[in-house]
Amino acid sequence: MHRLAKLDLAYVWHPFTQMRDWLQREPIVITSGRGARLRDVHGREYLDANASIWTNLHGHRHPNINAAIRRQLGSLAHSSALGFANEPASLLAEQLVRVANPRRAAPRSAAAPAVAQTVLRNPRLPKVFFSDDGSTALEVAIKQAYEFARRTGHSRRPRFLSLAGAYHGDTVGAVSVGHIDLFHKTYGSLLFKSDAVMAPFCYRCPFNRARPERADAREYRRCHWECVAKVEQRFDAQRRRDNPYAAMIVEPRMQGSAGMVPQPDGWLRQVAAIVRGHGAQLIADEVMTGLGRTNDPASGLLFACHHEGVQPDFLALAKGLTGGYLPMAATLTTQAVFDAFLGDYAEFKTFFHGHSFTGNQLGAAAALANLELLRGATSVKTRRRLAAALRASLASLWDLPNVGDIRQVGLVVGVELVRDWRTRAPFDLRDRVGIRVCEAMARRGVLTRPIGNVIVLMPPYCTTPAQAEQIVAVLRAGIVETLGGAG
Fold first, then answer.
1. What's residue 121's pLDDT?
2. What's the rounded Cα separation, in Å, for the pair 277 and 279?
3. What class does CATH assign to 3-61+378-483?
4. Which residues of 354-364 are buried (b: 16+ CB within 10 A; e: fewer)?
């Protein structure tokens, strides 16, 4: 066993990992990478099929981001944002406000022709609060929305609504609005109460009357938007209690840790109208979905909510903000929210929240280079090509009897494995089916991580069509090795 692997087993406690299992074998120790490839201590190469847990956008060791960080290192790595400003953070805030308030029309959806074709002009998001990661970006939004509701008289005891299966991070506030018992039940006594409403999960929706087909369930669903009606019912019930919701929290277009659950076109627009109709605020968790992951590159839109012309009151960003280089997050919000915290010093209306590395110069420099790349013609071309390559390759999986649903939104893919596609019967999580398939993929040179029985594919944007085809071929081989089926 390699010396570094021994050190890891002796000292490191890994996240979301059963360490008893981890200690039974030599871990893969990553030492270097370039583009979509990673290399371990034994010289083995792997394709990074989940962008190093959904963070890396343009590939490892991208020369533009490397150069931006080196330039910043030549002047200053970090200074406090508590009482001081700095150049790269100020420039980044300006650029984030620009891309978060687009003027370009949203693409027309053939599946939902009633969806508005322009991004809502109001509210505008002119203010940026920097933090460290996705959890803290959501924590900021929750705290600001809570206090805004109280100070404006909207709610005496502000309460939040989010989707069933929601995961919004691991800080206490973010966990409180999450609804995955496997992750959160243990901490119940630490949390504040929040409500859940059914997610628009077409593949497993109790209102979908369509029989299983060999296609994405959104394409053949038969329903009457009962999932939207459930949201309306929740808001109506809370209003009758004389304590309307302060905000609803949503991952636009696709719920990540819920199992890559995609929303049918039109759902977000309808739900946003309900939220606004009840005077509540909309918090968009775009930690995973934002920065080009879920949009048609040709649209020029970088955020999932804008796909349907929806502008939230809070936009939470992290993961890919620095291109996968450094931990940094941002929460964008409205002038009205910002103004609610203004007052004389003695009133103590300040937003009492912060982080030691808020507005870190290295992170901001990397993020500026990342945004420049995202808006460049080369990135637009490679993202469009990669999305098409994934879609074409994934079609080859439908003949496998254990592939129940293939869900793709832009450059995010979830492949749900089931006992039998005709019944949608799930595997028991104790069977570790997803983990076993990913282990088989790693032996063939492709790295990713499952969410239960859902295999996630989310490669860096620089992944070539040939590499995308290889990733899907290895996934197929891993499924066949683990579960049998067509060869």
1. 44
2. 6
3. alpha beta
4. ebebbbbbbbb
Residue identified by tokens 């005709």 is 422
pLDDT, one tens digit per residue, over 55-79 is 999 999 999 999 999 999 999 999 9
Condensed to tens digits (0 to 9), the pLDDT of residues 331-386 reads 999 999 999 999 999 999 999 999 999 999 999 999 999 999 999 999 999 999 99
Q: How many Cβ atoms sit within 10 Å of the Cβ of residue 53?
A: 16
Q: How many CB atoms lie within 10 A of CB 422?
A: 11
| φ and ψ at residue 247, rounded to 5 degrees | -160, 160
Of 19, 28, 21, nearest in space to 1 by CA: 28
203-226: per-residue pLDDT in tens? 999 999 999 999 999 999 999 999
- pLDDT tens digits for 371-413? 999 999 999 999 999 999 999 999 999 999 999 999 999 999 9
Q: What is the pLDDT of residues 413-429, one digit of tens each?
A: 999 999 999 999 999 99
Beta strands at 454-457 and 450-451: parallel, antiparallel or unpaired: antiparallel
Integer Cα distance of 368 and 352 in angstroms = 27
3-state SS string for 95-136: HHHHHHCCCCECCCCCCCCCCCCECCCCCCCCEEEEECCHHH
Cβ-Cβ contacts under 8 Å for 261 (sequence gap 6 or more): 165, 199, 200, 201, 254, 255, 407, 414
The number of beta carbons lying within 10 Å of the beta carbon of residue 15 is 6
Element spanning 426, H or E? strand 425-426
Q: Give 76-375's CATH code, choosing from 2.160.10.10, 3.40.50.10860, 3.40.640.10, 2.40.30.90.
A: 3.40.640.10
Question: What confidence tens digit (pLDDT) does each residue in 88-97 have?
Answer: 999 999 999 9
What's the mean pLDDT in 269-294? 97
Phi and psi based region of residue 169 (left: phi greater than 0; alpha: psi -120 to 50; beta: remaining): left
Name the residue ranges covered by the structural domains of the chain: 3-61+378-483, 76-375
Instruction: Answer yes or no: are the C-beta atoms of 446 and 475 closer than 8 Å.
Output: yes
Burial 82-116, CB ≥16 within 10 A → b, else e: eeeebebbeebbebbeebbbbeeebbebeeeeebe
One-letter identity of residue 286: E
